[in-house]
Automatic annotation (TrEMBL):
Subcellular location: Cell outer membrane
Signal peptide: 1-20
Membrane spanning residue stretches: none
Source organism of the structure: Jejuia pallidilutea
Organism placement in taxonomy: Bacteria, Pseudomonadati, Bacteroidota, Flavobacteriia, Flavobacteriales
PROSITE patterns reported for this sequence: PROKAR_LIPOPROTEIN
The protein, known as: SusD-like starch-binding protein associating with outer membrane
GO cellular component labels: cell outer membrane
Stored Pfam families: SusD-like_3, SusD_RagB
Annotated keywords: Cell outer membrane, Membrane, Signal
Residue stretches making up the RagB/SusD domain: 314-547
Length: 547
């Protein structure tokens, strides 16, 4: 059956004994037996804690055999990958640690033997297998369904929905641009123990039906459950509502999307300017609904989200290759919008190996720097202000949105998965798609007014103008948080770094990632199913491979 038949219940408390940028040595603790793990609510809570850790642990400590790899550390990689593939996070120079350059060149997800598709697939099914064990045990009725067990059950249903949503978004055609009743989705898996027998590929519609069923069951289970308190790595009812809002937006269930987005953000107020500019490095920010509290003992260091895309991290991926934003997006932001401050438009290009061949003083064209001394002084000033080292390069339009708590170091810090600003944007988009422009204006106004002192939502008084503004707000507000890939699929937009004056990306460096046709006519947007799965699963054949 599925290679997932090799997966045991994950109860991880990973201790890393040494670390370098090229090598990470890990030592997982022993796992307890499946029977003991499912015997009590507190033991099931240990399974959940293991699932939480799978979101940010190195995959070779979670997945067996050749289905894991030290170069993929869960959401550290998957979250920014959504903006890396879609061209939102732009590489300013050639660097390929962990295959990060290959992702933006569209070399990884289009290859069935690549570790990106393999690890993403098995990581998500690992979550499903563990969730199944909890769900099937509790629903079997052998334990008293008290408040604590209801919380555990709610989290398990939410996790399963989350995993299926990720799988169907990556390994199947987009719902709104395809034929979901016939388009192949992914296999459904309900087994509790080996051999983890799955069904053949279900349709995209079937997978979304299961997602909505699981989220409804999660929301019901959370009613009367114990509260997670301040631990935002634990899933709660707001998380379930937020995932339901996302799934509804994907499938054109506009009323559901709007309603669930409002429920998801209850109790999570929009951040103010100081919080928005603080670095996005902690789940303690007031509008964060869900995120991973990354443990220092996991020491993902040079496998972390911040290593891949934060310009303050002390690693070669960013020292040599500062990540920049699409200049078309940043130039469109008004000066009254404080989010624009987190993109250093006039940072000198200090990298002699920059992809645009404009690095160094000899190639400077910025009239702000009339002498080499001024050019070098600005480089030093930026390093002092933002905390990176003298070995870090700078580049126009580089970002300082994501910054570590200790800039210039190597600590990974937290990963944010869901916050209330996204929910305002979901509600606004759903209202606009229902042709309720006043409703869309009312949904967008709180976010726009907070971020831009001159924002006037009444200007966007048609469906077309409102949708363009919502897209702009999503791209700016959620930049670097991983939504670019799924947004482009939902909106059926291609990639064109050359259009409208250019994004700032290099055609030579970006190769296939420089231009891609829209997803409705371009199946390369769909991730390949791992060849290991095709080979191992008797319910799949080579004809099931994505085109």
């Amino acid at each position: 059956m599925l290679n997932i038949k090799k997966l045991l219940l994950v109860l991880l408390a990973i201790t890393v004994t040494s670390c370098s940028e090229d090598f990470l040595e890990t030592k997982p603790t022993d796992a307890i037996s499946a029977a003991d793990a499912l015997a009590t609510a507190e033991n099931m809570a240990l399974i959940l804690n293991g699932m939480h850790r799978t979101l940010f642990a190195q995959s070779q400590t979670i997945l067996p055999g050749d289905t894991g790899d030290s170069a993929r550390s869960g959401e550290h990689y998957w979250v920014p990958m959504g903006d890396n593939i879609s061209g939102g996070i732009i590489h300013s120079a050639n660097a390929n640690n962990l295959g990060w350059r290959d992702e933006m060149q569209w070399q990884n997800h289009t290859l069935e033997t690549d570790i990106t598709v393999t690890v993403l697939w098995y990581h998500r099914y690992n979550i499903i297998a563990n969730a199944n064990s909890i769900i099937n045990t509790i629903e079997g009725g052998s334990l008293t369904l008290d408040a604590r067990l209801k919380e555990i059950l709610g989290q398990a249903y939410t996790y399963r929905a989350y995993a299926y949503l990720s799988l169907v978004q990556h390994f199947a055609k987009g719902y709104l641009i395809g034929n979901p009743s016939t388009d192949p989705g992914v296999p459904l898996l309900f087994s509790t123990s080996a051999p983890y027998t799955s069904a053949p590929r279900s349709t995209v519609q079937d997978i979304y039906n299961q997602i909505f069923l699981d989220l409804d069951d999660a929301i019901a289970a959370f009613d009367g459950a114990t509260d997670r308190g301040d631990d935002k790595s634990q899933l709660n009812v707001n998380t379930a509502h937020g995932l339901k809002a996302r799934a509804a937006l994907n499938t054109g269930k506009w009323e559901t999307a709007a309603r669930e987005a409002v429920l998801a953000r209850e109790g999570y107020p929009i951040m103010d300017e100081a919080d928005w500019k603080s670095g996005f490095n902690t789940v303690d920010l007031p509008e964060v609904i869900w995120g991973s509290v990354v443990l220092d003992t996991e020491t993902t260091f040079f496998r972390s989200y911040f290593y891949l895309m934060s310009n303050t991290f002390n690693g070669s991926q960013v020292r040599n290759n500062p990540k920049i934003a699409d200049r078309r997006l940043i130039d469109a932001a008004p000066d009254t919008d404080y989010r624009k401050d987190m993109f250093l438009i006039d940072a000198p290009n200090s990298n002699n190996s920059a992809a645009n061949n404009m690095g160094g003083w000899d190639n400077n064209t910025n009239p702000l720097y009339t002498t080499e001394e001024e050019f070098e002084a600005e480089i030093d000033r930026l390093a002092n202000e933002w905390g990176w080292t003298s070995a870090h390069n700078t580049h126009p339009y580089m970002h300082v949105k994501m910054r570590q708590k200790t800039p210039g170091g190597i600590l990974p810090d937290d990963i944010i998965y869901m916050r209330s600003s996204e929910m305002y944007l979901i509600e606004a988009e759903a209202m606009a798609m229902m042709d309720d422009i006043p409703g869309a204006q009312a949904a967008l106004a709180p976010l726009g007014n907070e971020r831009d002192s001159a924002f006037d939502v009444t200007v966007f008084n048609t469906k077309e103008s409102m949708m363009e503004q919502i897209k702009f707000q999503r791209r700016l507000e959620l930049w670097g948080e991983g939504f670019g890939y799924t947004d482009k699929i939902r909106w059926d937009e291609g990639i064109d770094h050359a259009a409208d004056g250019g994004s700032g990306a290099s055609a030579v460096l970006y190769q296939d990632g420089y231009q891609q046709d829209k997803p409705s006519v371009n199946d390369d947007w769909i991730f390949k199913i791992p060849q290991a799965e095709i080979d191992a699963n008797p319910n799949l054949s080579p004809s099931d491979q994505n085109p």
